[in-house]
Each structure stands twice: as C-alpha cells, then as structure tokens.
Amino acid sequence: MKLVLRGGRVIDPSQGMDAVADILIEGGTISRIEAGISLSKADAKDALRVVDLNGAVVAPGLIDMHVHLREPGFEYKETVHTGSEAAVAGGFASVACMANTDPVNDTRSVTEFILKQARLAAMAQVYPVAAISRGQAGEVLTEFGDLKSAGAVAFSDDGNPVADSGLMRHALEYAAAFDMPVISHCEDQGLSSGGLMNEGFVSTQLGLPGIPTIAEDIMVARDIDLARFTGTSLHIAHVSTAGSVRAVREAKAAGVSVTAETAPHYFTLTDEALRGFSTHFKMYPPLRGASDVEAIKEGLRDGTIDVIASDHAPHSSVEKDVEFVYAANGIIGLETSLAVSLKLVHDGTLTLQQLIEKMSVNPARILKIPKGSLAPGCDADITVIDPDRVWTVDAGAFRSKGRNCPFDGWDLTGKAIVTIVGGEIKYADPGVKI
Predict the structure, then answer these.
(1) One domain, residues 292 and 405
(2) Which residues of the chain have pLDDT under 70?
(3) Is the pTM of the predicted complex or chain greater than 0.85?
(4) Annotated catalytic residue 179
(5) Are 410 and 392 in contact (CB under 8 A)?
(6) Final residue of a domain: which of 367, 387, 413?
(7) Choice among 311, 379, 381, 386 that is catalytic
(8) pLDDT one-digit tens code per residue, 164-190
C-alpha cells in the first residue's frame, strides 16, 4: 500500500524543514518528500491512497516519553491497548511506559509481556521503561543488560525516588555502560511525606498539609551532582518548580549532560485550581504557584526544559471519587497534551517548530529510538495537526479508561487529525477524507 499526503505544511525540526510539500509513503517508510509529487501510471495501478491535507501541519510522529499504561496488574485503570489507542487519538505515534505496574517491570518477562500486548493492540509504538531497582524498592539494581535485550529503552523508578545516593550513582554508571538513559523521579520523601498539595498560601487557607518545592529541588540538585561526578547522562522527570528549572539551566551551562521534561499541567495550572477540592487536580508533583509556572514557561522558551510529556496516569473512580485526602495522585493527559501545549504557541512562548521538537525530536534523541524525523528512509510515523481546530474536551468520550482529566469541559484550540504509525493510519478525525 502506498500513501500520499498532499499539500500539508511539513515541519520537521530534525531537517530544519518548514515548507508545503507532499510525502510519499511506501512499505511503512517515507520514500519521498517534496513539493508536487507526481504519480506514474505504475503508481496508479498499485494500491494507493491519497489524503489532501491542505492547511494542516504535518510533523514527525509525536512521542510521549512518560506515560503509565497500568498493565500488567491494574487493567481496570488502563491497558496497553486502551492506552495506546488514546495515544494515537491524541496524536502520539510512540509512548514510553513507566515501570510501576504489578508486577513491577523489573524482569525480562514483564518487558516482553508489555511488548507482546503492544503488538496485539497494533496502535502506537510502545517502548517499555524498566525499573532501576527490584520492585522499585530502592535497594538492589535490576539486571540492566537483560532488560535492554528484552526491549527496555530506559530505566526509572518513577513513582518512587531512589533515596540511596550510592544506588543512584551505580545506576547512572551501569546505565551508561549500556548507553541507556536514567529517568529520575526527584523527591525527598522526608520533606514531602504527608503532603497533599503545594505548600504555600493556598494550602494554608485550605488547611491541607503541603509539599514544599524544596522536596523536588534538593533531589534534582543531588542527581545533577551525581551525573557531574560520574560523567554520565541524566534525565529529570516532571519538573514542576522554579528551583528545578534553575538547577538544570546552571548544570547545562556547566557542561553536565542533563535533560529535563515537564507536563502540560505544570505550565497551565496553579495550586489555585485546588480551591474546589476536585481530585482531578491532585497529582504528584503537585500543581505549584504562579511563579513556578512562569519559570517553567521560561525554561521551555530558553531550552532548559527539553521535552513536554503528559505523565498520563489513569485512575478509576475507586481511587478518585473519594475525599481529597484519600484520593490517588495523577491525571490523564494523552488526549489533551497536544492541544494544551499548543497554548504555548498561541501565547508566543514557543514557535510551532520548537513545540514539535519538544514533543517528537527531543524525546527520540533522549530515548535513543529511531523516531522523530520525516527524512526519506525513516519510519513513516507522522502526526497531522489542525492548529486552528476548536474543540471541547469531553473526558467521557476518551479512548483511555481514565476520566481523571483536569481539562474536562475546556475549549481548546488545535488537535491531531491524523496519526500514522509505520505507514498505517491508526487514527483519523471524522472530518478528514481518507
């Protein structure tokens, strides 16, 4: 099957490309990309599909490098199938799923199971992130080499910090030997324990125990120092504080090999959103203050923060439809991440090219996966975006099993209208003629 995408505005930061062009896809790869591709009679005889994308943006397939697909163990919250279906509906051709499943993804068998489920789902590409430590207990390292050969692309105890500095040092050194990234969940639980939201004026008014920003900042600083000392690379997950942005910026300037991500809710919402005690706004790290939001936007603008990831964390009503103090942390984001992030383009914080870089090119580079480019010969993973589409978020209609969405009911501008994975259309908006 040959597929031609005609007349879209092709934006590919990996090639420095921003031009109206056609794309010819053959055998799951990008064959040609140029203005006005003409088809021969032989092409016409082959199985051929032509899609007119006039006015739409064509980008390398988006990559969400931080999601929780919950399977195995928590299939009532999400499965690899429902999560990857939500991914393509949100414009993501690839996702990297965290290890906090049950059993934890700390062995070859769990990694292989996740990949098998992804093949059966046949939606987004799924890249498992294996645990740093056995059972995510922070005591004994997992078998990095075996997990890499099974298909893991990174290591993280996300959901739990690695409190033992010695263990974290060895993890960085061990992962470097396999040319694999370590993704750090930065939290000092001695400072965060018992907290329910950001520590500040709002938490005081609401009478809720707070989580101070220093709980994140101090562990970001520690892990940066470990990366500096060992000469290895480090990726900081879900940055939420001004202090963390400052630490990463200074580390990069000093030559430390550190990258960082944030999530759409951390540059869109503040702790003021918790005044209604809605559990849809309860997450970890918590929503911070307005000054933190501005610092994160500046970090995205100046390149300190490399990646935007959703931290998609579905929960059922069992965990969320309860009193605030008992509710689980986490929100869903795969189907809103792109549209919420496009706000950064609309307000001038980022260009569209920069946004695509943070949601495709940079995640591919950090995870060391062969994605994030539309160059001929590359996998035909493509996201087509209508940047002007106005739509209303309806969490009840999501492909994800989760309904814990803080943006439910919002009017957003910009939407993925076609998602192509390996040359196959996995999602198409009803308004697109295929």
Answers:
(1) no
(2) 40-47
(3) yes
(4) no
(5) yes
(6) 367
(7) 311
(8) 999 999 999 999 999 999 999 999 999
